[in-house]
């Protein structure tokens, strides 16, 4: 089988509970995964990270397609992507960062109704991250720590 490389296909799959039923994770982010929510964009941790520091940036407005965004919204979204990129570089000093959008379910998108950009820090030989962290408890503790570190770095890069 030919392997298509797209780390952001490991999507956040929201568990529906009574309290969050039908709620979009970008419009109503869960506190423990929220990195930043401002006027222009939102940044959340991926619940099922491909690598340590896997985050997602979404535009403020709820909408699924790139062609629905205005020029202004694109600018704001990619300003957010740039801040997120800088914060990841500062936090992890990765050897690379994958940046990508899944548009539509067959592209691998887990959340299809609110556009978002994945940022996945990469290191040589990092492909074993998920199997290593297959324990859900370990993953969530890990994400909590990552979130605090990225939040701090983001504050620094956004304040120039
Ligand atoms: Zn939304």
Relevant terms:
5 strands; binds zinc ion; alpha+beta; 5-stranded antiparallel beta sheet; globular; HIT family, subunit A; 160 residues
Give the SSE string.
EEEHEEHH
In helices, the fraction of residues equals 25-40%
Count of folded domains: 1
Record field, number of beta strands: 5
The share of residues in extended strands comes to: 15-25%
Q: What is the CA-CA span between the terminal residues?
A: 46 Å
Associated small molecules? zinc ion
Which strand order do you get reading across the main beta sheet?
1-2-3-5-4
Number of helices: 3
Radius of gyration based on Cα positions: 15 Å
Write the CATH fold name: HIT family, subunit A
Main beta sheet, described? 5 strands, antiparallel
The helix-and-strand class reads alpha+beta
**Mean pLDDT figure:** 82
Poorly predicted ranges = 1-6, 9-16
Verbal overview:
This protein has 160 residues and is α+β, with helices and mostly antiparallel strands. It has a single domain (23-158), classed as 2-Layer Sandwich (HIT family, subunit A), CATH 3.30.428. Helices cover 31% and strands 16% of the residues. The chain has three helices and five strands; from the N terminus they run βββαββαα. It has helices at residues 71-92, 129-132, 136-158, and strands spanning 34-37, 41-45, 55-59, 96-100, 117-122. The protein has a five-stranded antiparallel sheet. α1 crosses α3. The radius of gyration is 15 Å and the shape is globular. It starts with 33 loop residues before the first strand and ends with a helix. The site of zinc ion (ZN) has 5 residues, from loops.
């Amino acid at each position: 089988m030919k392997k298509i490389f797209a780390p952001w296909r490991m999507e956040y799959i929201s568990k529906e509970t009574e309290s969050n039923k039908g709620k979009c994770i970008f419009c109503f982010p869960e506190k423990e995964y929220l990195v930043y929510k401002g006027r222009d964009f939102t940044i959340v941790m991926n619940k099922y990270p491909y690598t340590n520091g896997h985050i997602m940036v979404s535009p403020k407005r709820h909408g699924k397609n790139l062609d629905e965004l205005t020029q202004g919204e694109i600018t704001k979204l990619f300003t957010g992507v740039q801040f997120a990129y800088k914060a990841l570089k500062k936090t992890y000093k990765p050897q690379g960062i994958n940046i990508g959008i899944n548009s539509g379910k067959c592209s691998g998108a887990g959340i299809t109704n609110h556009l978002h950009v994945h940022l996945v820090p990469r290191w040589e030989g990092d492909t074993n991250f998920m199997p290593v962290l297959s324990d859900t408890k370990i993953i969530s503790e890990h994400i909590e720590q990552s979130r605090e570190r990225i939040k701090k770095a983001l504050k620094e890069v956004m304040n120039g």
